[in-house]
Amino acid sequence: MKILFTSIFCCFSMVLFAQHKGEVIVVKDPMIDSLIAKRIAIYTKSPGAATGTPVKPGTAIVGQMGYRVQVFYGSDRRQVFAEQARFKSAYSNLNTYITYKEPNYYLRVGDFRTRLEAQRLLNELRPMFPTLFIFREKINAPNLDYSNDNER
After folding, report:
1. What is the mean pLDDT of each run of 10 residues along the chain (152 residues)?
2. Which residues share a beta bridge with 135?
3. Measured CA angle at 66 (ends 62, 70), to 5 deg
4. For residue 8, what is the enclosing H or E element?
5. Is 143 helix (H, G, I), strand (E, B) or coil?
6. What is the three-class DSSP state of 14?
7. Is 0.70 topped by the overall pTM?
8. Which residues lie closer than 8 Å to 35 by C-beta, 6 or more apart?
9. Are 69 and 108 spatial neighbours (Cβ–Cβ below 8 Å)?
10. What is d(CA 132, CA 128) in angstroms, rounded to the nearest whole number?
11. For residue 85, which phi and psi values (nearest 5 degrees)?
12. What is the pLDDT of residue 22?
């Protein structure tokens, strides 16, 4: 009797553990494909398009944590844009970023990977802009200079 129950149990347990090859069908909303296409389009735009700096076409925008120097903050929008123009006239090679957090506008400059680089700019700007701060935030990767690659 024990042998009969054991053999029946073994037969049924083998059926439970048997695996069948199958087919997986993925059902998704077509909006997912359009969102993926939009994301790819955003991240393959040239990062210099907004700032006017020339870059290679199709370069991906890459963000990482780094440092920026806050040059000015205030509640008057026109004054912030005036300070941005004043900064751009002296340092046209550095990117500027204006953000608004109620009730103030903030003008931050640069995309520095290390705090030391940001500190060097801060020391250089101290005579022109009296209230300077260094902030750690997500930055755009700096554009690399490919002009010397062909000389080797």
Report:
1. 76 62 82 85 60 47 81 91 91 89 91 90 88 88 60 52
2. 68
3. 115
4. helix 2-17
5. coil
6. helix
7. no
8. none
9. yes
10. 10
11. -65, -40
12. 77
